[in-house]
Amino acid sequence: MSARVFASLCAVVLAGCPQDVVVDDSAPRIVTFTASRTSVEPGERVTLSWQTENAVTVDLNDAALGATRSVVINGSESVDVQKNSLYVLTARNSNGALSRAIVAVSVNKSRSGPVLTAMPREIDVGQEVTLAWSALEGVTLSATPGGGIDVAGKNSVTVSPTTTTTYTLTDGERMTTTRVLVRPTVLRFEASSDAIDVTDAGASVSLSWDTANATRVRLLAPGRAVLVDSTAADGGFTDVLSPPVDGSRLLRYELLVDGDDAQQVTRVLSLPVRGSPVFTSVEAPQFARVGDDVELKWTTLGADTVSVLRAGLEVHRTRDAAAGTFRMTAPANDFALELVARSERAGVARANVEVQIVGAPSITLSTVPASVTRGTPYRLAWAGQYVRNVHIYDGAGSELYAGLDVNDSATAPLVFNAADPHTFHVVADNSLGEYANDTLTVTPANAFTFTPSLTGSIPSGRRVSLSWTGGETLYGFPHDEVVTRSAAFDDISVTGTRLQFANDADDEIAPIVTTFRAPFYGRIVGDVINVSTNGYLTFGPGNDVNYLDAPLPSTRLERLTLAPYWEDLRLEAGEVHWQVKTVGSEQVLIVQWSNAVFGAVTGNQFQLKLFSNGQVDFDYAVMNVSGGRVGIQGPRGDEGVVFPSNPVSGLGLTFCAPRQSPVTLPVRSRSPYGGFVRANGSFVTVSARFDVVHPYELQLSEVQLAPVVGREGQWLEFFNARSTAIDLSSWSLDFTDGGTAPLSGSVPPRDVRVFGATTDAALNDDAGVDVALSNLDLGTSSGSFSWSREGTVDEFVWSSRVNGFAQVNDPGPFRYAGDAPAAPLRAQRCLAGPTYGFQTPRQHGTPGTPSSCGFGYGWEHLAPGYFDVSSRGLKIIGATTTTTLLTVDLSRAPFSFFGVSRSAVRVSADGYLTFDLTAPNDLFDLNAPSPSSPNSVIAIFADDLGGRVPGSGVFMYRAAQNEDPWASAPHWIFQWHHWSHGARDDLNFQVKLFDDGVIEYHFATMDSGGTISRYGSGESANSWLENGAGDQALVINAQALTPGISAFTAYRFFPR
């Protein structure tokens, strides 16, 4: 993107750039921060107490664990201290200013050693660092370089190192270190002259510089040898130029300064050459439409005139040569322009630009070869017109290929091999903001086909049996059969490779690097393997302190995990080994925990085996402990296979064994459930999809319990919150007296279907009943009924009724202003207002018309459609842990929120949007909706968040028609990229705002790291939609692990 384009974009989307913040001149102050005891025995509880002034947020950091969490402004908290600990309290005001206080708690006879931390860990020359520690008395502190530091009677000191320094804290025979990185700095880089005269014989230029904290300094001139390469911080160089001096260019010098840890800064000095002109910038579009206004812009040095030539003919000349602009109307064909700058003294400079003429793009996707056979590799090809950039995605939303500046027709460098249908999406653009897309479903000849025992719409969690013909074996498929057997323990403690853990092998992760691969949950795993001391292995990022087990499946446990015994284990006297062996025709990866300790119970020895055909075995040699969690977990936090009992010595378990038809599994997602069959000597993918009905998608929206026309006037109405129909075949109503009534037909998308005692309008008072249930009888003052398929789905309970008034039921779930943080979520009920029928007075209800109790949105589960805009969007918030709230202009495409057009929104680094444009920073209540500021909140993942890694940020983007492969309509996207709550989280989520008021939440990778809290699962976050008054919110997640937030899920809020 050119500077010109970027500047105009910034002007459009940022309302006033810089950020709109409330300035508070009152600096935050920590009045007190104390611990009830500063020296304890292992496991004793300590109460931390604090009081602050002028603070709007307070964070408590456990430096020993690297865990940070938000706490109340003034209060206390009890913590269990297992090892020497250091607690840092940070108070911030609304302007981002901060104050810190430190409390150290030492543990008598602690095996963990002292704790030492530096705040911050990276500085520039002249900045200060606070060193703080927790240890027994009698510590010494030294700096390398620098020597000893007086710490008598202290637990913190302030230092200002001028070079990268390692600090060592010694407590008796134990010690710990921390390192402060001092970045290199260029203090001065100058030339003796601001230009070189071309007429000078033997012209020269003298350069000089001063730096700080540099390990190496180099002076370069592009196209020439390195001029200086020195370890001296300061220096100079005289460059004698060989005549004649080239007057067609700038003289450019680069000073490269290296520091510690491969840090490097670069400074550039450019000197024009007098007497001959040079173009310092030329801007022109690479593409244009026929009839567009094409603008050519330039700047020069040393030019007296500038001419523009087309096809050798001069079409423009200017004597205002320092900067100029030329405009023309784009013709029907590609064209080129030449710029010629002339100096009256000497010399000519030339620059050329080419502009390609494009129109609206078109594209189609196909396969090579055109006919695909099961098990035969194929590629994807596209053909179209005015195609400049191409993006190809798979059916799950993952980008497979990005081609930039491509041809109209080409083949992607990807090879696929499948046994069942696979869907692909392609998006093409012409580089001018116009897009075209196509969807291709590739169905191989003789495709593998599952036959499910349940068809149609299936309630989430139901078990389904899958069968197939042909006698083929299914591999790596998450069926729910767990085989119990005698252990086949293969001790590898001598032959295997020992994994190296730090920290006494307590709460640690270590990687396995191997070429071993195996099918698991429909994918090939093994490129990433991380093993936890806490008794499990994961095929993705691992959390080294994930020791608080929970019932499986759980969002608390990492995705794609094998857990032979997930528990708070220690290995101070134990070991973990791994080895790849050959067993029969298969390879097997064995991971073995030996002498694992839980509490005071030692000697536990168990192992997992993953076979190259996808089978998973757990074998238990010695188990002296009970408890723990045993099972496997898939790519989503709600799917897995569990062994419900305690493993005992001599037990063996087998999961995911290769199976011939049939297999069974519980279905909880509309995303595909994948596995593999063998074809032509290799694994090829197969998958099964189910029309899963999630909770709250099929809602009892209205019921007439007490009609004035008697039982024939009773009716109930189901509302379908999905954007696809729900088939009610094989569903039924179940009454409290044991009776049942079969349901039938389907409920249209975002619409209702009415069931009643009769369809006769004369008998039911024109209630518009679609389906008659002859045994429907709800004629009691209180009661209940449920609806089911293969088990109860949901239930409606009433305790009162009003004659002639239907009850409107909106299950939500909702949270209201004033609710306690742990209060259960609630539905909303009300009596219907509108009237219907022939009676006098008329009855109240809206049978056949969707209605609610006033909250203007409903919601549904959505297929994941995360459209990463980090490479194309505008970064509006950079890497920061400071609360930031920006006002963003939406006036070019206003958004309708609860029916009100909004032309601006505030974006928070803390994971939410608000249309309350006067709200001060970070006053969003994370416990319950609040009428106080801010309200009108779109809280996708509201928590105490920030960006802690390079490249992290909050991005915004306006997706054009057909640009987003998962949503063709234009929309705004706000994306939090590589964001975090704890120090090592990797949280990625985005909000899509559509012009018609639809809101979508999309979650990609949501990994928790470095803390026992599962922040990525929403343990301390809220995902909800708050109304304009701020007194009610429609909730997806409210600081919970169940249901919590799972990676690669999505939700849609729609106006009603």
Main attributes of the structure:
1056 residues, mainly beta, Immunoglobulin-like, 12-stranded mixed beta sheet, globular, disordered N terminus, LTD domain-containing protein
Overview of the structural elements:
The protein contains two helices and 91 strands. The strands form 23 sheets. Strands 63, 64, 69, 70, 73, 74, 79, 82, 83, 84, 89 and 90 form a twelve-stranded mixed β-sheet that branches. The two termini are 40 Å apart. With 1056 residues, the protein is mainly beta. Helix content is 1%, strand content 48%.
Q: Roughly what is the average pLDDT, rounded to an integer?
A: 87
Helix content: under 10%
DSSP strand (E) fraction? over 45%
How many helices? The count is 2
Main beta sheet:
12 strands, mixed
Q: Return the domain count.
A: 7
| Structural class determined from secondary elements | mainly beta
Oligomer: single chain
Number of strands: 91
Could you tell me how far the N terminus lies from the C terminus, measured between alpha carbons in angstroms?
40 Å
Q: Tell me the radius of gyration.
A: 34 Å
- Low-pLDDT stretches are 1-25
Protein name: LTD domain-containing protein
Organism: Archangium gephyra
Quick take:
By secondary structure, this protein is mainly beta. It is 1% helix and 48% strand.
Question: What does the secondary structure layout of this molecule look like, with pairings?
Answer:
Elements: H1 3-13, E1 29-35, E2 39-40, E3 45-53, E4 57-62, E5 67-71, E6 75-80, E7 85-92, E8 98-107, E9 115-119, E10 122-123, E11 129-134, E12 140-144, E13 147-149, E14 156-159, E15 165-171, E16 174-182, E17 185-191, E18 196-197, E19 204-212, E20 216-220, E21 228-230, E22 235-240, E23 251-258, E24 264-271, E25 273-274, E26 278-283, E27 287-288, E28 293-301, E29 305-310, E30 313-318, E31 323-329, E32 335-342, E33 348-357, E34 362-368, E35 379-385, E36 389-394, E37 399-404, E38 409-411, E39 422-429, E40 435-442, E41 451-452, E42 457-459, E43 463-467, E44 483-486, E45 497-498, E46 509-511, E47 518-520, E48 523-525, E49 530-532, E50 536-538, E51 561-566, E52 575-583, E53 586-598, E54 601-611, E55 616-622, E56 629-633, E57 640-643, E58 651-655, E59 663-666, E60 673-679, E61 682-688, E62 691-693, E63 698-704, E64 715-720, E65 726-727, E66 732-735, E67 740-742, E68 746-747, E69 752-756, H2 761-764, E70 771-772, E71 783-788, E72 792-798, E73 807-816, E74 826-831, E75 835-836, E76 843-844, E77 857-862, E78 874-877, ...
Parallel strand pairs: 2-8, 10-16, 18-25, 27-33, 42-62, 69-70
Antiparallel strand pairs: 1-3, 3-6, 4-5, 4-7, 7-8, 9-11, 11-14, 12-13, 12-15, 15-16, 17-19, 19-22, 20-21, 20-23, 23-24, 26-28, 28-31, 29-30, 29-32, 32-33, 34-35, 35-38, 36-37, 36-39, 39-40, 41-43, 43-59, 44-58, 45-52, 46-49, 47-48, 49-50, 50-51, 51-56, 52-53, 53-54, 54-55, 55-58, 56-57, 60-61, ...
Organism: Archangium gephyra
Protein name: LTD domain-containing protein
